[in-house]
What we know:
The protein is mainly α. Helix content is 64%, strand content 0%.
Amino acid sequence: MTIKSLISSLGRLLAIRRDEWWIAAVAAVVSALLNALTIARYFTPFTQLSDNYRRLFVKTFHISGFDPLTYEAVSAWDTAYNVYRHPLLAFFMYPLYLVNRLLMWLTGANCVQFVVAVVLVVSAVYSALMLYRILHELVGIVRGEALLLVVMYFSFAYVMLAVMVPDHFALSMTVLLTTIYACGRRQQQGRPLSKAETVVMFVVTAGISLNNGIKTFLAALFTSGRRFFGWRYLLLAVALPSALMWGFARWEYRHFVWPKEMARKEAKAKAHPLPKGGKIAPQTTYNANSAHTPQPSHSAPGQKPSSNTVTPIMQGEFMRWTDISTSRPLSVRENLFGEAIQLHRDHLLGDVLRTRPTIVSYRSVMNYLVELAIVVLFVLGIVAGWRSRLLWTVLAFFAADMVLHVGMGFGLNEIYIMAPHFIYAIPIAIGFLFRRFTSNATLQTAVASIAAFLWIYNGYLITSYLI
């Protein structure tokens, strides 16, 4: 496949069709209003110019456990993210940094919130469109039911939050839904992915967050079937891109991160010299909840760090971020299918690295009934669509994150933060239930009621927190 044909295919994929413009418009307006809440909350401090944007943003921004590192990268470009987890994300942000620098020069203020908000609105629009296309074109349900499930999906708490906070999750959600749609079309047509297509998808998805690359390969496996295991495909589309991505991350660390770490250590040593013959006992502090941005606890100055420390499976460069001490059943109930979908009133949008406990319970039994209804619909949808290769692809994505977060414990304490990486599995599975029971008024009413409740409930809590 030539570069020209790749660009042409991408253009057709991203083109908004005539009958989709109103969907895009509604998604844009809703997302813009959500972003307006964030902008208004932090407008005064974040429009100021600074010589240390990282300190300004990390100290000031507090919405759950989301990191404002994108604000830093777009204000004063640097590899602000963990380079092993997000190897290309800082480079994807570089054009935005140039735009923001121009706006700084023109206005004398930091316009980073507005620049990032545009990206978040575009992400919301394409996430809505891709999910709608998956449900209508690939699952095969009618337009009204597809739109109903899109509305329900964006009522989920951490989907709503993802498109209004300066983290990477909205971007990940968009590229993963686009991957599912693109591969689902190929499955429908009986056409495998080419090596070039797989490489491009891997670079984009894994460049944003490395674990997304695993999902790209899973999508390629379910789309290409046995051809995936051909030695040329495995070598050129899987092994070589993976090795190059990892090699680039290592180079990025040595070139950008390591010199700064050494400079900080030297500055600290000069500021606090040891007495002659003195030694510092090695100390290691670990909080599993920093898994979305692996680093020591980033509590703001003057705040006590969270006591939610956990026990890793073993020590090591990456295994130290695992967790064997957090209760899986409680975290699944209160966080995975709880906080990710319905916010808890207590410790509202608190950060587990600061004061929020790992497990928070709902005040009302109503919240548990809504959670139970969603889980039951999810399971019934899986049963209804069990023979679909598309659903297998989506569930493979879901299972990959469950192994990573629930099984090994990476970020288990705040698994709700990672919800945009996998929670689209719920509306897609329910879509197969809609297909099995066409135009079922009871099912439509149930989903519409859940969506309405979540929009009111989550919308009220988010608004009350930010205003």
